[in-house]
Specification:
- By secondary structure, this protein is an alpha+beta fold.
- It has a domain at 46-135.
- The protein is 22% helix and 30% strand.
- The strands form two sheets. It has a five-stranded mixed beta barrel with strand order 2-3-4-6-5. A two-stranded parallel sheet has the order 1-9.
- The longest helix is centred in the first third of the chain and has 18 residues, at 2-19.
């Protein structure tokens, strides 16, 4: 009986104590999960689809990371040789080529202060779907083949847990295997051929 009474008193004290703790103010942090989207739909939604070589980047003079890139090959919304500015995600590798799906931003991107160096005020486009529409390309030995020559090729890193490719597209490793961030390699020639088909279907 005494034990039960002590337990009841302790529970009452805890309730009173908790009620006196000030309510925490909500934080403005929003964590968004990327959408799962078919490559063909991604192509339709993007204003620009292109292979872009990143020549420089600026994380100091703007409110977000801004990269400067040269268009190596355009599938939609740009011209080969054009210079574009995009962001806002850090971690893109300078001097590397990426396949980018971009949304145009209505207002130009201006430096934080007029005296800032940077690129000045520029037209700007955003990588969207939580960064998964920026796809790095590189030479990789990650493919199936009888020998090294067949196993090594230029590839595109596609996070296929979120970007759904046509069913006939082979990925390395296959979709059945778990990978970090759901990203896998696709031969660059195969991937760009799919983009070319999507571009031609718009004409």
């Amino acid at each position: 009986m005494a034990t039960a009474l002590r337990t009841l008193l302790l529970a009452t004290v805890i309730v009173i104590f908790v009620q006196r703790i000030p309510a925490q103010q909500p934080n403005d942090v929003t964590i968004s999960e990327p959408r799962v989207i078919k490559l063909a739909d991604l192509f339709k939604q993007a204003d620009t689809v292109a292979i872009v070589k990143i020549v420089s980047g600026d994380t100091e003079n703007y409110r977000v990371a801004v990269y400067k890139g040269d268009v190596v090959k355009s599938f939609k919304g740009a011209t080969t040789g054009e210079t574009i500015y995009f962001g806002p995600y850090v971690g893109e590798r300078l001097g590397w080529e990426y396949i980018l799906f971009l949304h145009k931003v209505p207002n130009p991107m201006a430096p934080k202060t007029p005296s800032s160096a940077g690129y000045g005020t520029v037209s700007y486009a955003e990588v969207f779907n939580e960064g998964y529409t920026s796809m790095m390309t590189s030479y990789e030995c990650a493919f199936d083949g009888k020998d090294t020559a067949q196993q090594c090729d230029y590839g595109v890193r596609v996070c296929t847990d979120y970007i759904v490719l046509p069913k006939s597209t082979r990925t390395f490793p296959p979709v059945s295997e778990s990978t970090p961030f759901g990203c896998r390699w696709v031969r660059k020639g195969v991937f760009t051929s799919i983009l070319g088909t999507l571009a031609n279907s718009r004409e």
